[in-house]
Amino acid sequence: MTEFSPRVESISISGIREVFEAAGEDAINLGLGQPDFPAPDHARAAAVEAIEAGKADAYTGNKGIRPLREAIAAKHERDQGVAVDPDDVIATAGGSEALHLALEAHVDAGQEVLIPDPGFVSYDALTKLAGGEPVPVPLRDDLTLDPAAVEDAITDDTAMFVVNSPGNPTGAVSPAEDVREFARIADEHDVVCLSDEVYEHFVFDGDHHSPLAYADTDNVVVVNGCSKTYSMTGWRLGWVTASTRRIERMLRVHQYIQACASAPAQYAAEAALSGPQDVVSEMRDTFRERRDLLLDRFEAMGVEVPTPKGAFYAMPKVPEGFVDACIERDVIVVPGDAFGANGAGHARISYANDAEVLREALDVMADVVANLR
Ligand SMILES: Cc1ncc(COP(=O)(O)O)c(C=O)c1O
């Protein structure tokens, strides 16, 4: 008898956690994947109001409250010019649950899922939990996902490929021509393109493009949420948007693992999505300034960084020993190989941190680089 399922034994606690635990209490943490801003006041107020009015005590419908799904549909229209039926959306416990639903609903045992390498840690783990085989697709030197590499990796066993632009851990943004290619590949090869767009609003150079806007079939499934865009990681509110038949399959999973997303969070999310969006552009401008600071400082150190065009991460190519030396000096950065074998030789730096703190951390990094040479 086995004590635990081979699926759960095939995954482990994320390497990022290990890095946090190795650092001292006063360490500067550049390992975090959450914006350092408060949630919008109007989102918080909407949740409080819903709670006080007794609207948030009961289960909502499995897909979530209708006004939230209407706000999400309006968002698709506003940002991508795509008409989405509010019934083709499920509100989930963060983008994380949305990814889980997409994989559970589409991946059969032994089927392959192509994931960016380096890529967000959940793609590999959730694929394995679904019984699938993650197939890493190495990124280009500029850390974007190459559509040709995706197409080359497709086999008869491929169920899905994951696109994440802007990307974690890379900050890379796929240009429109690549996104069009992803849509074409999903159409022509009849595989699902899972487009994780949680960093959609943090693009500094160029624009965000979604394969949803370009596909002719219903093979694109979009995951998004409030965690990053509205700095609401603790609210645990995301969503998945797809065709009616795909949503129906994902709803089967959602119904049994979650029932519905948290009701107060749904009201907060509806307010965040339909209220003023200047909070988002303010965050974006701040992230851009910090990105520029980081690029300047790394250039001065002689450290190569593929220019991150979005999100709030950078992935410099660092000398051997860099991550450990930084952690020893109480600056937490994450080793690139925590995100896949092809991330080796890089470190991921999150700049969701105050500019002053970032400067202090960059001074330490400059010292570390000088000492390692
Ligand atoms: C690329 C990416 N997708 C999805 C998520 C999931 O975020 P959440 O579950 O908070 O919406 C994250 C969080 O770090 C992420 O970086």
TrEMBL record:
Parts forming coiled coils: none
Domain of life, per lineage: Archaea
Keyword annotations from UniProtKB, A to Z: Aminotransferase, Pyridoxal phosphate, Transferase
Main EC class the enzyme belongs to: transferase
Gene3D superfamilies according to UniProt: Type I PLP-dependent aspartate aminotransferase-like (Major domain) (3.40.640.10)
InterPro entries: Aminotransferase_I/II_large, AspAT/PAT-like, NHTrfase_class1_PyrdxlP-BS, PyrdxlP-dep_Trfase, PyrdxlP-dep_Trfase_major
SUPFAM superfamilies: PLP-dependent transferases (SSF53383)
Cofactor: pyridoxal 5'-phosphate
Enzyme Commission number(s) of this protein: 2.6.1.-
Any single GO BP term: amino acid metabolic process
GO MF annotation list: pyridoxal phosphate binding; transaminase activity
Keyword Transferase: yes
Pfam families, alphabetized: Aminotran_1_2 (PF00155)
Domain Aminotransferase class I/classII large, chain residue ranges per copy: 26-363
UniProt keyword annotation of Transferase present: yes
Matches recorded under PANTHER family: ASPARTATE AMINOTRANSFERASE (PTHR46383), ASPARTATE AMINOTRANSFERASE-RELATED (PTHR46383:SF3)
Subunit structure, as described in the record: Homodimer.
Similarity comment: family membership: Belongs to the class-I pyridoxal-phosphate-dependent aminotransferase family.
Protein name: Aminotransferase
Biological classification of the source: Archaea, Methanobacteriati, Methanobacteriota, Stenosarchaea group, Halobacteria
